[in-house]
Every structure is written in C-alpha cells, then in structure tokens.
Amino acid sequence: MNIPVLETSFNGLNNLLYKSYLPKIINTAVDAGFFEELSNTPMNFSILSGKTGTDERITEALLDVMTAINLLEKTDGKYRLSFLAKDFLLKDSAVNQAAAFKMFSGSAGPFDNLGEVLKNGPSEFNQKMWSSREAAAGMEEGAKGGLLQSVVSFIKDIPEFKLCTRMCDFAGNTGYYSLALMDENSKLKSCVYDLPEVCKIAEELREKEINRGRITFHSGNLIEKSSFGSDYDLFFCSHFLYEFAAKNNLSVFLKKVNRSMKHGGLFVSSHISPASAGENYLTLTIVELITRCMGYPTHQISEMTMKKSLNEAGFGKFRIKQLDKEASIPTLLLSAVKINEE
After folding, report:
1. CB 90 within 8 A of CB 29
2. CA dist., res. 217 & res. 158, Å (int)
3. Where are the beta strands (DSSP E) in 148-214?
4. Chain centroid to CA 324: how far?
5. How far is 88 from 44, CA to CA, in rounded Å?
6. pLDDT tens by residue, 7-42
7. d(Cα 40, Cα 46) in Å, to the nearest integer?
8. Is this structure's pTM higher than 0.90?
9. d(C-alpha 26, C-alpha 34), whole Å
10. Which residues contact 318 (CB under 8 A, 6 or more apart)?
11. 201-235: per-residue pLDDT in tens?
12. Mode of pairing for the β-strands spanning 166-170 and 315-323
C-alpha cells in the first residue's frame, strides 16, 4: 500500500464542516427551553432534563456542545448562561437574535437549489420578500444585534447632527433607526420611505410609540421614485444602494438625494464593504453568493465607489468608520456633507 504523504492536515476543514451543524443544534436547544430554564438558576443536566422533558444523555451532550461554543459555562457539573446567551438567546432580551439563528437551520436554506441556479441562473429578485411582519421584525431584531447601536454612536458624534431637525430615512423599514436617533436629538423629525406593504406594517407597529408624532411613513417604488420630499438636513440610507452601484448609476440617485437636502446637510450611509482576508472575508463571500442566487446583483459597495459617487453628486467632507466586529456583518459607515447644489 502506498500511504499518501500529506502536506497539511484535514483537521481545519473537518472542523469547518462540523461547524455547519451548529445552527440546527442551537435552535434545538432554544426550542427545548434550555436557555430560559438556565436564565435564573444554574443546574446539572439531570435536573434540566427533568424540567424540559428531554432525554438525559442527549441533554448532557447537547449542553456540552453549547459550552464548547461559549453559550454556556460549566462549573462543578452545573451549567449557567454565558453573557453571550443572555444577550442574544433569551426571549425577553431586547437584542434577542432568534430569527437570525432560524435562518441558518433546517431545509429551505439559501443553497438548497444552488446546483440548479448555478446552471440556469437565478429567478427574478422579489423585493417584496421583506414585506411581511415577520421579515420587518427580523430586520429590526438583527439591527439591534450591534449595527443599530454603532450607527447611532457614529451619527450622534458628528457635530452637524445636533443641529438636524428634518430627516429622511430612505428604505427605513419600520423606522427603528429614526426612533433611535430621535432619542438622541429631541428636535429631530423623520420621514421614512419604504414599500407600501412595509409602511402599512410600520404604521401598526409604531402606533403606540412615545415619539410617534415625530415620524411619518411614505410609500412607493424606491428604485423608480423620482423625488422624496425636500429640506432635509439629515439623509440616512442603510443597506439599499447596492443595485445602483452595480448598475453604475449610484451618482444619479445621489444627485436626487442632493436636491432633497439643505446646503450643509448631512448624508449617512451604512452598507457592507468588501473585506480582503480572514473570517470576515469568508462570511462576505458567502453573503455575496446568497445574494446573487436570489437574483440581486450584489451586497457590497466599496468605500472608493461611495466617495466617487458622492463627489459627483455634490458631497464632500467625508467621515468613515469600518465596523469589523461591532456588527454581525462587516459594515462601512460613511457620512458626507452637501457642499454643492445639483
């Protein structure tokens, strides 16, 4: 027998394959009630098994997996929640990310038809996929996992923000960015633009908000919309401009933005920007593959593309912050000031 001489170890790739099982395992632990039961009192696997009606030996093995990925801690045979689990897996947590975990588990995943799409190309992208109550809630929940906090921190530190009174939150979903920014600026009012179905959901969800009187929802086709109000001193856009960039007409859209704003007004963008190496690069390559399989052109805009298009549209005085770990997906925050009329 000729035994092959290996240049490297299969260990790293094997570990990667086994990690692909984790979302299903985590979701099973969530559905079984493990995290809720452990939220107040540490306990051993036998007691937890009795409380949740689960098999003891399988419960122990599952808890050990949760411990290995730092969702639980184990001391003297008793399991307790880690801070990671307390923040993102408990039902009553303000930043619960259960929806994100569900997206990565079970069948009907983004790559179920990858072979077919690879040969035949994607179907037409359906922009109404975000128009359900569940999708709207999931987007807000995801933003609260770090991106919302980072965006608010970035904007409130910009000196011009303190003087802003009228905001356009373009493709703003249910207005959660607007509401968070209004908490930081008592004079700020916001106009949120999104699809008709999304605006209807937003009206229902925000009916009893304290700042409801300072936010209005405006519906329409966001790609084709020719105008969206005027006299804004703050224009915010998050994860929407990708298609314009892919079709090389980003500056055309930004010129419309320019015309809607006051001179000296503040434009802020929050979009995924390409990474060159490491785990972030791997994540972004997978996100990009999912995006193209769905029929959408791209989910990345480079810093250079944003700056060039904004310059062409009459903006300058850039401020930049790259989020590598603060958000679930690496994101570029960019602000610019309107310095010329278009």
Report:
1. no
2. 26
3. 166-170, 189-194
4. 13
5. 22
6. 877 777 877 887 888 888 888 899 899 999 999 999
7. 17
8. no
9. 10
10. 307, 310, 334, 335, 336
11. 999 988 888 888 899 999 988 888 778 899 999 99
12. unpaired
